[in-house]
Predict the 3D structure of the following.
Amino acid sequence: MIDQLWLVLLGFAGGILGSMIGLGGGIIVVPVLTFLGFSPTAAASNSLFAALSNAVASTISYSKQKRIEYSLGLKLGLLSVPGTILGAIISSDVAPDIFKVLFGLVLVASAVYIFLRRNLESRQKTISKQMMVFAIGASFFAGIISSFFGIGGGIVFVPLMVAGMGMAMKRAAPTSQLILLFASLSGVITHSLLGHPDFTQAGLLAIGSFIGGLVGARLSIDIKERYLQILVSVVILIAAGKLFYDSATGFGVVGF
């Protein structure tokens, strides 16, 4: 177990960033685990424990700051549950190279969102019936992404609340953490029933992620967001490039 203590630091780093930007720490944790040779299913299921721990810590902190929209968060969180169950089931059969390509695309989308997130903010909107129907479908899709990739699904929920529902970013990211609590919990349960995670590794990631979630929620009040956007976007794009390269090598597209 001692030689796996680095997982606590990885969970901590992912927890801080996941809490501050509302996407969940899996966008950091999963690429690192994948680069180190973890199978897609192991990386996703272990990371989801960290996402759950991060969501719990962040929700506690943001609740004290009174920045969570509980009614909306509970509805979207529960709507994501069926998708998380499906995502965990289909993750069992994915080939590593296919997983790397798909996750690379998710990382690119995450980087674009992080870099442009301020531009998404708009005035408060009246939520139409059409938007609620769209939100139901988006929640199901986010649930699949959450459990399949082990990232929580915030890449869907935060833009949905900000661009689609007119919620301020200062409330959307905290509300996203409440939603991710439901999504990650149902994903963790399903992955565990399927025998996917290594509970020692998942536990170490969860410990670090919980502490990181508390720290990230506090830092989100004072940090200069633009600097964080640039740093995280660059790191994520580098990780995406590495995933694309590795997958191309696996497919035989790149060779020496």
Notes: The CA atoms of residues 158 and 172 lie 6 Å apart. The chain has one domain: 2-251. Residues 2-251 form one domain. The radius of gyration is 17 Å.
